[in-house]
Design a protein that fits this description.
The chain has 64 residues and is an all-alpha fold. It has 3 helices and no strands.
Length: 64
Amino acid sequence: MAVALYAIGLVMIVEGLVYVLAPSIVEDLLAMIRSLPVGQRRTLGLLAVVSGAIFVWAAKTLGV
């Protein structure tokens, strides 16, 4: 449970930093994503999930 809270906290820090340091870039990126067809947005989401799973697996394998 502690690891899950740690991970969620790190995600919130990174996400928050993006909004603090470059809010206009975030708005442009969201507009670009909004203009993509639904199928491409789903593909982006799937790639994000797979990438996250690979990072978690690699961290666990390396003992990080």
